[in-house]
Amino acid sequence: MRKKPELSLRGRALQYLARREYSRAELRAKLLPHAQPDIDFEQVQPVDLDALLDDLVARGWLSDARAATQFVHAKRSRFGTQRITHELRQRGIDEELISAALPALKESELDAARDVWQRKFGTAPKDDKEKARQMRFMQSRGFGFDMIFKVLKTSDVEE
Asked: Coil, strand, or helix at residue 156?
C-alpha cells in the first residue's frame, strides 16, 4: 500500500480554509505543528508560516472579519453576547472587529434569549428552585442577568 504524500503547508492551509473561515490566529495554531519540520524541497529552505499567512491575507483567502461574521451568524441563535464575545477573543479576533459586531449582537439579544429559553423550557418556572435552574442555564449560554430577567418576566406575564 502506498503512503499518501505529505501535504505542503500551503496545501494544508487551503484545505482548512475550504471547509470554513478561520481567523489568522486559529489557522496559525492549526498549522504550527506542521510548520516546524516542514521544508520546501524545491527551494531547500524552511517555509515561513507568517509569510504564508500574510500571503493568504493579501490574496483575500484569509480574513478575520469574515471569520468573525461567520462565527457570529452561526452562534447567534444559541448563545448570548457575552459568550460570543468571549469565544471571538479566544479565536484571536481583534477587539475592533468584536466592537463592530457588538451593536448587532445586542440588538438581537432579547429575541435570541427568548428563543433559547422557549426551546429549552417553554414554561415559566413553578418555584424558586426551577427559576434558579433556568437562570443558570441561560447564564451558561452567555446571556446577562438583565436579559434573563426580561425573558423570565415576559414568560410570567404570558401565563
From this structure: helix
Cell 463592530, residue?
100
Distance CA 56, CA 155 (A): 49
Which ranges in the chain belong to alpha helices (H)? 9-19, 24-35, 49-58, 64-75, 81-90, 95-107, 109-120, 128-140, 145-158
Q: Domain limits of the chain?
A: 1-62, 109-158
Say how far apart CA 31 and CA 21 lie, in whole Å.
15
The pLDDT, as a whole number, for residue 138 is: 96
In the chain, DSSP assigns E strands to 39-40, 45-46
Local confidence band at 125 (pLDDT 50, 70, 90 cut-offs): very high
Q: What is the CA radius of gyration of the chain?
A: 22
The pTM of the full predicted model, rounded to 2 decimals, is 0.80
Q: Are 104 and 38 in contact (CB under 8 A)?
A: no
Three-class SS state of 39 = strand
